[in-house]
Design a protein that fits this description.
Elements: H1 8-11, E1 25-27, H2 40-51, H3 64-74, E2 81-84, H4 87-98, E3 104-109, H5 114-121, E4 125-130, H6 139-149, E5 153-157, H7 169-178, E6 182-186, H8 190-193, E7 208-213, E8 226-230, H9 232-241, H10 249-260, H11 262-265, H12 267-284, E9 290-291, E10 298-302, H13 308-317, E11 320-324, E12 334-338, H14 342-357
Parallel strand pairs: 1-11, 3-4, 3-5, 5-6, 6-7
Antiparallel strand pairs: 2-8, 7-8, 9-10, 10-12, 11-12
The protein binds pyridoxal-5'-phosphate.
Length: 359
């Protein structure tokens, strides 16, 4: 292949590295431990969907049934929603709808990679506001950057991946008022955080886009379903950019059933949150380990960077795969641990105590 065939932005891209997974306990991707199809009512829904399923027919381009279920869940109108093949796809579509080459995109750092990756692929310039010590977002810095630089798009991950920190809705409103451009709020973990969603603000701020997903609290990462909520004028433009049949009909039907069954699905979240807080205490009790407060289904911890390799390998030897941030200067010696069940957490702790206890 000739390198000249590639778009300039792609030429400069480092390949996306997917770690081969051999471990039994995979806690590196913030997946839900529960299989929601173990809920008899949802399983029955899925069986009924399969009995009348017509794979020869194209899916509904705007996922009408799913939009209605989501609209009811979020108390918005269906026209204020657009669903896709995971939140990642909706990030990509949104960037493709609004960014020209050279446009400025503002992010805080560290955060989810997809904003920067997607924006850079389109030739946008990405400016970062680093967190304050303790992985607290630099709220004044973010507001000042919005005011002075007026980015085309500002990304706020709330609560943030990988730090777990939650921003108050009042700060997001400050950003929305200060910004002449768009403010994209990624609420992938909001179900774990409680009642701070900014979805109710979409009627007030025409520059607000909120991302949600069924991959985390709903436990449907493999099904692939994410969605944005925004002013209907924004939804109409993103809908023009998306592939007509981006969300397959089976996912549309099962996702709608899951949203309707949320009262049976979401209680797992409460178990995860309680286990997270228990695990945070266990981790913090290990000498040499810093645990950052989290409002999500994961915990970010840090150890002395010189110990990080040994720790990661010891976890792997114990059949546990965690997320590490090798080479990221903002996350030295950091690991992100997805919270699942007490037995897995105990195994994680055993290894941590053993490695940190070595001379
Ligand atoms: C998991 C995640 C998403 C979306 O994931 P999908 O599986 O593509 O829906 C979006 N943002 C953040 C911060 C995430 O962690």
């Amino acid at each position: 292949m000739k390198t000249e065939w590639l778009r300039r932005e792609v030429r400069e891209f480092a390949p996306y590295v997917v770690v081969p997974i051999h471990e039994t306990h995979v806690i590196n991707a913030n997946e839900n431990y529960a299989n929601m199809l173990d809920i008899p009512s949802l399983r029955a829904d899925v069986e009924a969907i399969l009995r009348s399923y017509q794979p020869q027919i194209y899916p509904k381009p705007l996922a009408d049934g799913l939009r209605e279920a989501l609209a009811e869940y979020l108390s918005v109108r269906p026209e204020q929603l657009l669903a896709g093949n995971g939140g990642d796809e909706m990030i990509s579509y949104t960037l493709h709808t609004f960014l020209n080459e050279g446009d400025l995109v503002l992010v805080h750092a560290p955060t989810f990679d997809m904003y920067e990756v997607g924006a850079s692929l389109l030739g946008a310039k990405v400016e970062k506001v680093p967190d304050l010590p303790g992985y607290r977002r630099d709220r004044e810095g973010i507001l000042a950057a919005i005011r002075e630089r007026q980015p085309k798009m500002t990304f706020l991950c709330n609560p943030n991946n990988p730090t777990g920190e939650l921003l108050p809705a009042s700060f997001i409103e400050d950003c929305l008022r200060a910004a002449e451009g768009l403010v994209f709020v990624d609420e992938a973990y909001m179900e774990f955080a409680g009642a701070e969603s900014v979805v109710p603000l979409i009627g007030t701020y025409p520059n607000l886009i909120v991302l949600r997903t069924l991959s985390k609290a709903f436990g449907l990462a493999g099904l692939r379903c994410g969605y944005i909520a925004a002013d209907e004028a924004i939804i109409a433009e993103v809908a023009k950019v998306k592939n007509p049949y981006n969300l397959n009909s089976l996912t549309q039907a099962i996702a709608a059933a899951a949203v309707r069954r949320r009262d049976e699905i979401l209680p797992v979240r409460d178990r995860i949150v309680a286990e997270r807080d228990r695990m945070a205490g266990g981790l913090a009790a290990v000498p040499g380990v810093t645990v950052w407060p989290s409002r999500t289904n994961f915990l970010l911890i840090q150890v002395e960077p010189a110990r990080a390799d040994a720790l990661f390998e010891a976890w792997r030897a114990a059949d546990i795969l965690v997320k590490r941030y090798q080479g990221n200067p903002l996350l030295p010696g950091a690991f992100r641990i997805t919270i699942t069940t007490p037995d897995v957490d105990e195994a994680v702790l055993r290894v941590l105590r053993e490695v940190m206890g070595r001379a």
